[in-house]
Amino acid sequence: MIVWLISIAVVVYGSLTPLAAVPVDVPYVDKIIHFLAYLWLAVLPVIGYRSPGKALLLSLCMVPLGIALEMGQLYVPGRDGSFGDMVTNGMGVLAGTVFGGLLKRSGRAMPSGPR
């Protein structure tokens, strides 16, 4: 739970501060970063909560977070929220939810946490 909350804080901070140059020249690196960040945010509650319903709800709550942060970027100098990033965030959440479920089912996830 603590790792998840810290991860959310890092994503919020990174999303709402002026954009720094990405040090690598890889096509679509911004989309890759968005996808991986939201995959991480979605997988953590799935593997960390005992209650499947609560885990799914918390995981899917990352979709409105991604939308809100993209909209918030419209007010940050040097940033611009985009529909493409919203979609990529959502795809990361979907992948993280599925991947977390597969990890939990396989027994490779961390021990069950809060209910």
Shape: elongated
Secondary-structure-derived class: mainly alpha
Low-confidence stretches: none
Helix content: 55-70%
Number of strands: 0
Walk me through the structure.
The structure is a single chain. With 115 residues, this protein is mainly alpha-helical. It has one domain. The chain is built from five helices and no strands. The protein is elongated and about 45 Å long. 30% of the residues are buried. The mean pLDDT is 89.
Entry summary:
Helix content is 68%, strand content 0%. The chain has 115 residues and is an all-alpha fold.
Could you list some keywords that capture this structure?
0% strand; single chain; mainly alpha; 115 residues
Topology record:
Blueprint: H1 2-15, H2 29-48, H3 52-60, H4 62-72, H5 83-106
Helix pairs in contact: 1-2, 2-3, 2-5, 4-5
